[in-house]
């Protein structure tokens, strides 16, 4: 297809033609990165055929599914088009850009901003009058091809499964799948695994507890399957294992299938309404159905009451809600000691949070936090901080004015800073590679820690670049004063439901860091959770990320008590004042609110005396390790316990 006869290209800047080229592969095993180079070379060839002058190429090559609408390169391309700098955009075929009608939208944006789009394999040129029909027809063909291929593969694999036991999955624990295996008939059982699997079923039958079986498996060295992400069994893994019908000699296929989520273009796995298909393979059976089915039925009856209740419409309230999207504090707060996040269901209580690492016996901090109460306390702290914004109004206005006035220069300075950070990361990565080549015996924990740190910095760099690209494509939208910012925040925060996912999303923006640690009164007693929080009142303003000065002005570190003070500490200040006035303890007890006992007054005065003796202004002390005299905290005494912090985690200063 020749483009020489079409309208002549003229650089909008008067001297250099700016050409964008996109290359994409899905990342499947049969696709090579060499294909990306081929796509780029094809695009350059077309550009040189169309224009004889100086050309500047802007290239994006990426791996990802074409149906995905949340790919970061799509945002980058849209920013390119909105910048009114691009003269020409070349994609080998529209499916390289995105599959489906979203390609028509991007082509429309390009036309609106004077950018010509060419797709040689689809014979599309937006300079043609009928380009919209061509784009829609190409989108239709790409979608049709995807749908047809998907149905063909599903039918083919199911036919192989039913016909001769083909299309086998990865093997689970207890089975060997030879390298040349074509069907289930080639699989063999591990004879040395039989004793563990059968004994595990007997333990499960007696206890109806997956953790008991997991402990037995781990103690006796019976490992999970070779494709399992964990190297140790837990209760949930055990129950999934025994529910697998392959153990009865009836492998299945089609229990779930994938459907498209049209908002993001992602494929999600759901239960197949037509149910799975089974195939009888007696040589794979560890049990007969009569042996294992009653145990599974008893487990289902025992656990029936622990399922999440359905709402008034009869559906699960978490239906198709991502596990990462949860209420405030859940998967957000971080354990100060090990670096893992807090999760709901702490110590068997629905509204309690606890360290997820503690559940795995790898952290001693098993003290729970009441989630709704913590969210309410956090909301009050945020509202109090919002109320003080007037004190920094003049500084705020000055920074906003400088940001708007400095515009391109500030963005360029920010880009240069990000480029320097990227170069520094690459240098450190190169040093690590050289270091690891020179040393034979490398500590695995050290390696994981270094790689995790680099990965975290790269992730933050990517987020900063996205914010910069977003800010560069248009005028920054920033509040003009703290009064306007206060109005925005109060609109979102007042009368908010602290149990809602929306509140959780907002709190993650305003409070990006929450580290929970433990304190205790100097005279003993329960361990109490306290949090160090990093508050960023600009977190919900997307364009504020482009101004480091603005974020620094609106950020602060605070300490938040996630507990109610014990009675002796609650009454201590007033009890000390009345005692100094000469009142006896019994009279003090009568005058204090809450009707404390004389014993409580005595404990409060004794606590104050200890503070004076130790020269303390606060009765709370920080706990760096589990105290020996606290009998309720015994997780670290269990033989399964081993402290394993998150790789690369470093405790923040308190």
Describe this structure in words.
The protein is α+β, with helices and mostly antiparallel strands and 654 residues long. The chain folds into 4 domains: 17-146, Rossmann fold (3-Layer(aba) Sandwich); 167-306, Hect, E3 ligase catalytic domain fold, CATH 3.90.1750; 390-515 and 537-556, no CATH class; 567-622. Helices cover 44% and strands 13% of the residues. The protein has a 5-stranded mixed beta sheet, sandwiched between helices. Helix 2 runs parallel beside helix 13 (444-472) and helix 6 packs antiparallel against helix 7 (210-219). Mean pLDDT is 88; it is low at 1-5.
Which properties best describe this structure?
5-stranded mixed sheet, 20 helices, 44% helix, 654 residues, alpha+beta, globular, 19 strands, Hect, E3 ligase catalytic domain fold, Rossmann fold, 4 domains
* Shape assignment: globular
Helix content: 40-55%
Rg value: 31 Å
Instruction: Tell me the count of domains.
Output: 4
Ends apart, CA distance between termini: 66 Å
Helix-and-strand structural type: alpha+beta
**Helical stretch tally:** 20
What's the average pLDDT?
A: 88
Strand order of the largest sheet: 2-1-3-4-5
The total strand number stands at 19
What share of residues are in beta strands?
5-15%
Model regions low in confidence, pLDDT < 50 over at least 5 residues: 1-5
Q: Summarize the main sheet.
A: 5 strands, mixed
